[in-house]
Amino acid sequence: MPEPIVSPIDGQVAYEFEYLDEGAAFAAVEQAHVAQKQWRSTSLDERARVCLDMLTAFEANLDQYTREITTMMGKPLAEARGEARTMRGRIEALIQLAPAALADELLPELQGFRRAIRHEPVGVVLDIAAWNYPLVVPINVVAGAVLAGDAVLLKHAPQTALCGRQLAQSFASAGAPKGLVTDFMCTHDTVARVLDSRRVNQVAFTGSVRGGHEVYRAAAARNFIGVALELGGKDPALVLPDCDFDFTVPNLVEGAFYNAGQSCCAVERVYVHEQIFDRFVEAYVAEVYALKLGDPLAEGTTLGPVVDARAAERVERQVQEAIAAGARQLIDAGKFEVPDRSPCYLAPQVLVDVDHSMAVMRDETFGPAIGLVKVRDHQHALELMNDSPYGLTASIWSRDDERVEQLASALEVGTVFQNRCDFLDPQLPWVGVKDSGHGVSLSHLGLRALTRPKSLHFRRR
Questions:
Q1: Long-range contact list for 283-292, CB < 8 A, 24+ apart?
Q2: 223 pLDDT more than 90
Q3: What pLDDT, on a 0 to 100 scale, did the predictor assign at position 369?
Q4: Which band of pLDDT confidence, cut at 50, 70 and 90, is reported for residue 422?
Q5: What pLDDT score does 123 carry?
Q6: What does R_g of the chain's alpha carbons equal in angstroms?
Q7: Per mean pLDDT, which range of 90-104, 129-143, 208-222, 290-304 is the poorest?
């Protein structure tokens, strides 16, 4: 039965997809095992070629695919195109890292012995991907797994279901064996039964903390398989008096409102030293007013709708609860032309006089609203930045490299940025602590996480 994809642009059904029934799902799993047995013996050069040819095939349909992404989930068309460019950059980086990451590790010579660690493919990887970055979220796993010698079942989010098809078809056009990368649109119940069957060797999940717990429980019920979880964030930024002020302000606005704030590593709270707080707030508000809210398919739009009405309600609820508790709202929504085509369009919001008793400073917002807080000193800032159940990224805006190094050591997060935010470098591991996740993707560590180590201990005579 066809399932609808309702576009946040106008609240209308834009596309349809169908879930695999249980029989078709298990057939796809078996086909993936067949493909993986063949693929694991291919050369790394051949694996890299298929990944690069996949990009060529995808880019041949770039206009269609990026328009589908924008229509499905609402990000401005320019951002959808940018995501496709980012996907290429990540794949090229993983290809560059793969020879060293996947090579045998030879241990120091011991007379009469050869000892090595081999990184073998894990087998079939189930990748459960999120809708907010529907290309780069899955490609971290898909490209890494293909390079490592694995097969991938790509279960995309229903909101962006067409992206699973886009990627699977592009791999097929590149000459990948049937079943190597499969569009695996299944219900939660079917996924649970597949996991229970012990026919999947590893799971990667990107989504909510609640969803991560569900996947972890399902994967552990009858299996001992690897699970990687990329979950929520409430990422802080610290602005110090010695920052490059004119550089910092627009970057922190973009870090908060890019993709309508719907990024796991979006800046969701900003702590500003009291010496520059008033100046910062004034400049930040002016920069927010420069955003152009509107139809994401229109050129020039920089702020599109959030993904659905429930997301809009969550953001508005957090903002209104904060105001009721004493926060001040600095943005006049009436100065934005808010489209009335769906309830998903939200004017951006900036709040001050906020504290950690408020959900907008404690819970993931995942939308175009942010709180700004005045801090006395570094210690005060660290206490507030670490006062969160999440730990994905944090950014520090300062020219003092030594101070930043000291602060970075005390921050309870997976990535610390200096004078940068909301960015993934594919040569660095992407990790979270606390409720932000478990496991690693990208970098040589992410590639190795898609393998299993085998010890070679040979006595030579």
A1: 283/245, 283/249, 284/249, 284/252, 284/253, 284/350, 284/372, 285/330, 285/331, 285/350, 287/249, 287/250, 287/253, 288/253, 288/257, 288/331, 288/348, 288/350, 289/331, 289/335, 291/253, 291/257, 291/336, 291/348
A2: no
A3: 98
A4: very high
A5: 98
A6: 23
A7: 208-222
Backbone angles phi, psi at 424, to 5 degrees: -115, 120
Q: Give me the DSSP letters along 357-424.
A: TSHHHHS---SSEEEEEEESSHHHHHHHHH-SSEESEEEEE-S-HHHHHHHHHH--SSEEEES--S--
Query: What span, in angstroms and rounded, lies between the C-alpha atoms of 34 and 36?
Result: 5
Q: What is the number of other CB atoms lying within 10 angstroms of the CB of residue 215?
A: 23
Q: Is the pLDDT of residue 95 over 90?
A: yes
Type of residue numbered 217: R
Rounded CA-CA distance 122/125 in Å is 8
- Asked if 214 is an active-site residue, the reply is no
Q: Report which secondary-structure segment, H or E, holds 284.
A: helix 277-289
51 is catalytic: no
Burial profile 135-171: b = 16 or more Cβ within 10 angstroms, e = fewer: bbbbbbbbbbbbbbbbbbbbbbbebbbbbbbbbbbbb
Say which of 51, 163, 243, 264 is annotated catalytic: 264
Strands 437-438 and 226-230: antiparallel
pLDDT at site 171: 98
Q: How far apart are the first and last CA of the chain?
A: 65
Among 230, 265, 268, 364, the active-site one is 230
Q: Please compute the mean of the pLDDT values over residues 202-210 and round it to a whole number.
A: 96
Whether 108 shows a pLDDT value over 80: the answer reads: yes
Other CB atoms within 10 Å distance of the CB of residue 328: 11
Q: Is the pLDDT of residue 461 over 80?
A: no
The CA-CA-CA angle for residues 21, 22, 23, to 5°, reads 95
Cα–Cα distance measured from residue 255 to residue 257, given in angstroms and rounded to the nearest whole number: 6
**Which residue's structure tokens are 């659905």?**
308
Neighbouring C-alpha atoms within 13 Å toward the C-beta of 165: 18
With CA atoms as reference, report the closest residue to 19 among 31, 3, 5: 3
Residue 438's pLDDT is: 94
Q: Which structure tokens are listed for 410?
A: 């005390």
Mean pLDDT of the chain: 97
Closest among 136, 144, 194, 188 to 167, alpha carbons compared: 136
Enter the pTM of the model: 0.96
Return all residues near 69 (Cβ < 8 A) that are at least 6 apart. Answer: 75, 80, 83, 134, 135, 160, 163
Question: Each residue of 310-349: pLDDT tens digit?
Answer: 999 999 999 999 999 999 999 999 999 999 999 999 999 9
The residue ranges of DSSP E strands in 7-96, in sequence order, are 13-17
